[in-house]
Amino acid sequence: MKKGIVILAEDYCPAWEKIFFEEKPHSVGFHFRPADYPMEEYFARVGAPPLRRAAERLENAGIAVEHELHAAEWLLPRVLFAKEPSLFREEKGMRTPSLNYCFSDTRAAEIVSERAYLLAKTLKQSGNKYYIWSDDAENGLCSCAVCRKLNGADQAMLFANAVLRGLRSYSSKAECSFLAYADALQVPSVPPAEGVFLEFAPIYRDFAVPIEKNIGKNGAYRKLLAQLGGVFDTKNTQILDYYLDISLQCGWKREKISEVTFCEDVLAADVAYYEKRGIGIIKTFAAFADFSYFQKYSDAPFRAFLRA
Fold first, then answer.
1. pTM score > 0.85 for this model?
2. Residue pLDDT, tens place only, 12-61
3. Coil, strand or helix: which one is 263?
4. Is 216 left (phi over 0), alpha (psi -120 to 50) or beta?
5. How many CB atoms neighbour CB 113 within 10 A?
6. What angle is formed at CA 147 by the lines to CA 143 and CA 148, rounded to 5 degrees?
7. 306: burial class by Cβ within 10 Å (0-12, 13-18, 19+)?
8. Are strands 175-180 and 129-133 parallel, antiparallel or unpaired?
9. Of 30, 210, 236, 250, which is most buried by a Cβ count within 10 Å?
């Protein structure tokens, strides 16, 4: 099973570099929270010499460097709302610039594709796997006359397909993830374009027990994953979980950070479960593990994840 770790770009520090070079994950994903700062600042961070050179060192060591981003707000700039409100989603009969956009609007899809090309051109990543997601929110769907006939996964698929078209303008080999998360936890009727693969993020699972145990929402997630196996190529599917996500464990409040709780036995059981189903990549978020975190706490859980 290949392993990956997704961290906030601002959390990268020498402790992470030491872990990555010694444990050799399959991939390192950089992420940011749009609530903290805009996409332009993210571009500046990953493009500045410290992080850019770190990415080069990782790639020279055979570690894929990727970007996992909630980007709908950047792909369809909200300043367009004043002149073209029809581009944006409808909620309770009114158009609103908040959260995502009108996924069925062809003009909006064209803009998203054009901006996806610019996104890829700006990121300049060497790999072909892209993780460009809709806004990080629940209840962010459009309810216009067309979109209300589509479930959340259908709307998310329209988004992924539009993003892929732009990415393919930048690189003919580009692939884009469909993130099964938040509003998109259903089986889509809209087919994925060739090059769209499944990224499955079971954020509401019970983290204290293996995914195979019928506790909490675990059973529903397993059922959905099996159903999505009829839509996507399982060999290209990735699991994005939260085994080491300090931000989730502290309620996304840095002032409440404590040492990460890591259930290594849960991970081991999950790895066995996913491998039996032909899935070969599993990742974890590890947000809020920054320089100050590693001054206080051990790096052992992060190493254990990569060794499991």
1. yes
2. 999 999 999 999 999 999 999 999 999 999 999 999 999 999 999 999 99
3. coil
4. left
5. 19
6. 55
7. middle
8. parallel
9. 30
